[in-house]
Write a structure and sequence with these properties.
Elements (H helix, E strand, L loop, with lengths): L4 H10 L7 H12 L5 H8 L3 H13 L28 H9 L5
Helix pairs in contact: 3-4
């Protein structure tokens, strides 16, 4: 994945490694197995209080170690078995860059 220049500058100010411990790892694994589970259900499954689960997830979000919630869709299930990204520059844009002396 490409990082934009503005993201790189912002990252220099706020990005740092977050160190996962075994409790964090167990919480994340349990969330992956049961994405719809409540904090209480996760706590019961792991033998932790819901407050501990909540505090750990909050800390992961604050450190940007935890991405946004997602409901991933299997592309094949909707008749689109291939997902592709095209980062080519359209010919007209390349021609304009070349004329302006920006192209190689």
């Amino acid at each position: 994945m490409q990082m934009l220049a503005s993201e790189a500058l912002n990252c220099a100010n706020v990005c740092h490694m977050y160190s996962l411990d075994s409790v964090d790892a167990h919480i994340l694994l349990a969330r992956d197995e049961a994405q719809e589970a409540s904090l209480i259900e996760l706590g019961n499954r792991l033998g932790l209080s819901r407050n501990t689960i909540h505090a750990r997830l909050k800390r992961l979000r604050e450190h940007r170690a935890l991405g946004a919630p997602s409901s991933a869709l299997d592309p094949a299930s909707v008749g689109r078995p291939l997902l592709a990204f095209d980062d080519r520059i359209p010919m007209r844009s390349r021609q304009l860059e070349h004329r302006n002396g920006n192209g190689g």
